Amino acid sequence: MADMIEASGLSKFYGEFAAAQNITFSVPAGQVCAFLGPNGAGKSTTMKMLTGFLAPDEGVSKIGGYDVHADRISAAQRLGYLPENGPLYPEMTPHSFLKYVGETRMLSGGELRDRMSWVCGQCSLGDVWGKAIGKLSRGYRQRVGMAQALLHDPDVLILDEPTSGLDPNQVHGVRELIESLAETKTVLLSTHILQEVHAVCSRVVLINEGRLVFDGPTSELGTHSDAMEQKFRELTVAA
Ligand SMILES: Nc1ncnc2c1ncn2[C@@H]1O[C@H](COP(=O)(O)OP(=O)(O)OP(=O)(O)O)[C@@H](O)[C@H]1O
Fold first, then answer.
1. Cα(148) to centroid of ligand 1, in Å?
2. What residue stretches are annotated with the ABC transporter domain (predicted)?
3. What domains can you pick out in the chain, each with its CATH number?
């Protein structure tokens, strides 16, 4: 299987502080991989470097085999990214925002309409389609973020805490969506919810204090979420 997401020696320093240091892992086509770590471990920083939103101080990121910094457009066409704080543009509606995002991704006419209608249904946005994003609840804003990540039907999804701030019904909906997407896509998702990892991820990459401390099958971290929680604590307790 070709690797669809590759982090090779990624580091980001803020002064002396290493937010991420020498992070190396790859995710093969078709895999759903969890990206775990305590608050401040460096997950969002690494995801931003993987998606080209932050330039690494060291290392290389590749999406679908394309270098994210040297071959940005080819990498971006294959990538959908849900950033940690969801979409900005509070005055736009989901409809106008997704139309704008679609146009920047070279979609138009019937194709753009079909894709907008598909993400509207998949992300259950029908009720808020014409409301200002700034007035939506956190859960709905999160779903608008998911919709923009999926709009151009990318092969690779990098999702920074896709279920954070959602109520249990919405969490269930997003998990089902990720499971259905997993049939055709490669997914890296960060989360603090270990049950979620069991539910949807076959593989776990765990970082602590900016460094990779575990990379392996979910089953190696434990066969249920209690065992996994214990192992998580062992691997992430401050040295
Ligand atoms: N622009 C910045 N300047 C200085 N420090 C930063 C900057 N951005 C992030 N950091 C620091 O880098 C570390 C890693 O942050 P990051 O947001 O990647 O963690 P995280 O694992 O995503 O955390 P969380 O689970 O809380 O979202 C944190 O200590 C954070 O304070």
1. 24
2. 5-234
3. 1-78+155-239 (3.40.50.300), 86-153 (no CATH)
